[in-house]
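Order emerges. One example.
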Amino acid sequence: MDISELDLTTAHKKLLEKEVTSVELTEYCLDRIKKHDSKVKAFVTVSKEEALEEAAKADQMIASEERSSYLTGVPYSAKDVIMTEGLETTASSNILKGYKSSYDATGIKKIKKQGGVLLGKTNCDAFAHGASTENSDFFVTKNPWDQTRVPGGSSGGSAASVAAGEAFYSLGTDTGGSIRQPASFCGLVGLKPTYGRVSRNGLISMTSSTDCLSIVTRDINDAAVVLENIAGEDIKDATCAREPVPSFSAGLRQGPPSNFKIGLPKEFFEENISPEVQEKIEQAIKQFKELGAEIVEVNLPSAPLGVAVYYILTPSELSSNLERFDGIRYGYSAATDKDQTPADLFEVYTKTRGQGFGDEAKRRIMMGTFALSSGYFDAYYLKASKVRTIIIKEFKQAFKEVDVLLSPTSPHLPFKIGEQIDDPLTMYLEDIFLSAVSLAGLPAVSINCGFATKDGTELPVGMQLIGNHFDETKLLQVAKVYEQMNTWHKKRPEL
């Protein structure tokens, strides 16, 4: 049996049929990490001993038929902004280097109870501030399809670990596109649930009003089973919804909704989309028509303002959230650094933050503090909040006409490492099709819609499908019917 050909759901089947053990799956992933991660650099921390212990326990659970969850015994990775008890959780930032969490995030805890096997923590833009994983304070993660290119961000390590075959799935976060864009660049499925569908407890907060624990997998089936196992109400998260959690995998077996309508936001297709991406998106739309979908043009006039709104609200919220990193409670502190001699408490703060935070974190703290400051609050933060409300209303109106919306995930193919990192504005525009969706709290998924050749290399193209609030079932059904017509998701990069 070739383990490299297995996805999460087929691995689950092989485990139940006793054709493979969890220990064997885990050893396979650890071997892949050992062989290839020096090139890909997806992982910040690999928990080999702990993973093998969890795998042995999972095999016992399966043997005793104690569990039959899809996640039992299947190895996965987790972005390094997600709390994991006893393992380092650094947010890929120097200010948290060496910090070990005292508890598991709710999503991690749910998977652990079902016998999931955590392989380790994946690299990301520090504190999830970025769209390329180049803002990590530790190293740059490479795209497995072309190691001269970025894997996307901020959950680039999570996507790269799955694309490289080092994990069967990964947990990341999506605040303004941080799971969808890396999924697009790495040829995977990236699912951002409705805001509140999954608990935020245990996430290192970036933008509290848009942060979502999210999922990257090889196909739609896998995304559905992970979501149904981590979603649900959590008393530790006041923003977590009390909506019942349906069986998303059972919903997929029912097939797509009859006479479904797909909306094309006119404003998204007026953006500067590269010819390679435009061609693949048009081919996907044509395939949906062949499936019987009705294609409808819709208007979202305020959606193009999503990036501007996002980059006022996000720095404002994160400037408050990052205040806790003061060198006193946890993480790096200039006061205990033998090379530092702070004169007073104020200098402890300034030296700790000055040396612990990277350039992008500092940039966003300054932007957010300015937007919230006296005399500027009404002009920036308040106005952005009002535009956000208008964006939400426009999406609600669109979903009265259609079942899902369709757009490119990214306007272009994965870009070269170093190509955009010195241009913050260009980097912020990476979220052009993604940030408005996050501001509205909607569920969305990026799926592979083909490959385009650039500079002699085949690179994946991502298509975004957007659903109505708490209607992940319909969203996944539409994505699945497209996936079944193609084999893009079965391709693997050569390392």
About this structure: The first helix runs from residue 8 to 16.
